Amino acid sequence: MRRWNESAGAGSVQGTLPPEEVSVTRLAAVPPMGWNSWDVFGTSVTEAETRANAEFIAEHMAEHGWEYVVVDIQWYDPAARAGGYNSGTKLVLDEYGLPQPAPNRFPSAAGGAGFKPLADYVHSLGLKFGLHILRGVPRQAVAADTPIKGSEYSAAQIPDRERLSSWVDDNWGIDHSHPGGQAYYDSLARQFADWGVDYVKADDMIAPYWEDEVEAFWHAIDRVDRDILLSLSPGMNLSTAHAEHLKAHSHLWRVSADLWDRWRDINAQFDLLREWAPHAGPGHWPDADMLPLGRMGVRAEVGEPRESLLTPDEQRTMLTLWCIARSPLMVGADLPNSSAETIELLTNPEVLAAQRHPAGSREVWREGKLVAWASEDGAFAALFNRGPEPAEIQVPWAVLGTARPGRIRDCWGRTDLVPGDALRVKLQPHGSALFRLS
After folding, report:
1. How far apart are CA 283 and CA 32, in angstroms?
2. Where is the Alpha galactosidase C-terminal domain (predicted)?
3. 7-13 long-range CB contacts below 8 Å, 24 or more apart?
């Protein structure tokens, strides 16, 4: 990455913050927005599918802030399939034990080109390219004792066979008491930078919380001569006690397990985001996971090909909560085959403005299944009905942190409302409303 002093403009004050702190906050000044292949194609996404979704984003969504195109797990498995992970499969690795895109799925990667041709194409559309990587070193590289590029070490020197993933057996964990562990991650990060990667989703990092793995991977990403956003996954049972460490060693981190198109998954995020929202800010964003919207499940881990099973009200509630809480937005749909209603939902500029708003936000009121959030500067307010019956909510302006506004804007309806002595709204089951106050 470019160091802070090198990118400081004329007249700027240099040396006020440590370079590492600035390198975290300089990127991801607002929560990132993009597309991820997992919800629709699982482990088996192809280059053609990635390009088609990138082209759709460039044509229909980029002007609204959608910019990342992320290939999820096992892009190095030629035999990847729907419905889960292959066990003991032969991966595509180079002579240094570094994963390479499977050419039968990513034809432009043939001949050792890696992801550079695909990344170049995504960049030509004005977008940014990302990929998934699993914690650790490939077991296949350890068995072959491949040299670690740029070092005197080899793969057989660095595995920690006790630090296993509970859900996929591609890798061993890494023993970071050995300098070869950092050297391997350094070589991986250099490869990503050479390919033109802009975003890395590093998985199996924080459930359980592997502090040394997080630090080693962050240092590897931080050393390359390219700006790369680092996202950590998953987030089951993640304690806010790790918040300061996460802020210093990542740009975004998951706060839950994988989220699917089920109301119980959306509903669980209310409590999680209430805890994590105070830790959101430039360069460090708690992540409520992907948006299971539109056409999904074509070859996914969970479910058959389908339109999202969330009701229209539940879909709006998910987006309202993610935006008021300023979570990253990563949609998991096959966008070219999704409905116009889905795309309209994802490109409402008045709703997305809440996610890009510079002021923080908090849950400010809760009564049973009824919830209110507000931004700290009083600019946005969101009301939610988590219950199974219609409900009317009335929240005093003072609770929302503002005086009676001169104007209320319904962000979903895109209409102006006359303010009363409180913010009142009738909501359907699992429904929500988002307002801009002025």
Report:
1. 10
2. 376-437
3. none
Q: What is the pLDDT of residue 8?
A: 28
- pTM score, whole prediction: 0.94
11: Cβ contacts below 8 Å, ≥ 6 apart: none
CA–CA separation, 407 and 102 (whole Å): 55
Largest Cα–Cα distance of the chain, in whole Å?
A: 72
3-class DSSP state of 246: helix
Burial of 179 (0-12, 13-18, 19+ CB in 10 A): middle
The answer to whether 373 and 386 are in contact (CB under 8 A) is: no
Query: What CA–CA distance (Å, rounded) separates 87 from 302?
Result: 18
Q: What digits encode the pLDDT tens for the residues 365-415?
A: 999 999 999 999 999 999 999 999 999 999 999 999 999 999 999 999 999
Neighbouring CB atoms inside 10 A of 62's CB total: 17
Count the alpha carbons within 13 Å of 40 in the hemisphere toward its beta carbon: 27
Alpha-carbon distance of 372 to 111, in angstroms, equals 55
> What is the rounded distance in angstroms from the CA atom of residue 229 to the CA atom of residue 226?
10
Q: Is 391 helix (H, G, I), strand (E, B) or coil?
A: strand
**What ranges make up the beta strands (E) of 204-307?**
229-232, 252-254, 285-287, 295-296, 306-307
Model confidence pLDDT, tens digit, residues 253-296: 999 999 999 999 999 999 999 999 999 999 999 999 999 999 99
First to last CA, the chain: 40
| DSSP assignments along 206-230, one per residue | BTTB-HHHHHHHHHHHHHSSS--EE
Range 353-390 burial, b when 16+ CB lie within 10 A, else e: bbbebeeebbbbbeeebbbbbbbeebbbbbbbbbeeee
What the block records as the tokens of 432 is 């929500």
Note whether 110 and 84 are within 8 A (CB). Answer: no
Q: Measured between alpha carbons, how far is residue 72 from residues 5, 122, 136, 184 in Å?
A: 34, 15, 16, 21
Strand-pairing partners, residue 313, are: none
pLDDT digits (tens, 9 = 90+) for 304-353: 999 999 999 999 999 999 999 999 999 999 999 999 999 999 999 999 99
Amino acid at 388: P
Full set of structural domains in the chain with CATH: 19-356 (3.20.20.70), 363-437 (2.60.40.1180)
